Amino acid sequence: xxxxxxxxxxxxxxxxxxxxxxxxxxxxxxxxxxxxxxxxxxxxxxxxxxxxxxxxxxxxxxxxxxxxxxxxxxxxxxxxxxxxxxxxxxxxxxxxxxxxxxxxxxxxxxxxxxxxxxxxxxxxxxxxxxxxxxxxxxxxxxxxxxxxxxxxxxxxxxxxxxxxxxxxxxxxxxxxxxxxxxxxxxxxxxxxxxxxxxxxxxxxxxxxxxxxxxxxxxxxxxxxxxxxxxxxxxxxxxxxxxxxxxxxxxxxxxxxxxxxxxxxxxxxxxxxxxxxxxxxxxxxx
Length: 285
Known about the structure:
seven-stranded mixed sheet, 9 strands
């Protein structure tokens, strides 16, 4: 299409933001002629971004288009960003164009392939230029038209014309999402329950630990009648390691009497400090 425009050799189209708004967008919205029709007119939101370079009038690494913009809801001012097999998502803040009074607004958008909000981010970028201070109220009943014309610059961050993600990647993502969304099945059939535990495991559950105050370690009692369950000598020595009352009395060199501890001391009916300790011990005889 560039040859149809009869452009001079070495021509490059690299307009600034102010030039795009003042000399192209304003003239297009006012129905004024443009010296060189270098910007194509299409409905940009009907195509994927990788299909747009073939529809452009001119461009090497970036392409320009005049496009109408529709509403997402009949009575709202929010634009419809669905396009082709994906959608455009705004990023960053809007930039006013014009000084001292803004004439246009620049918005940056990124294309996502797939359905919102779980689309795959691509490297396709769009700069959308729209006029500022324009009445965008509903002019016709049941009309979704928001702007008659906006100016769009399309380019790829990698400088190449990338196609949409491969079918294998999309299918793998679909399968993974289906696996995540799949809920576990609850089996109600009688054959789905696990088998009962073996008899040996049931017999082992009847064992229990028995604590005796006279022992220093607990004993294991079982229902088994096997006579080979004998406590080892090490355990027997530990069990018999508790001091006897005779040893206590021998070390103290007198026989301790509970009644004498309370009557013969100089504190009357006050109990001896040692009595609190010996009240909790019972003699084995």
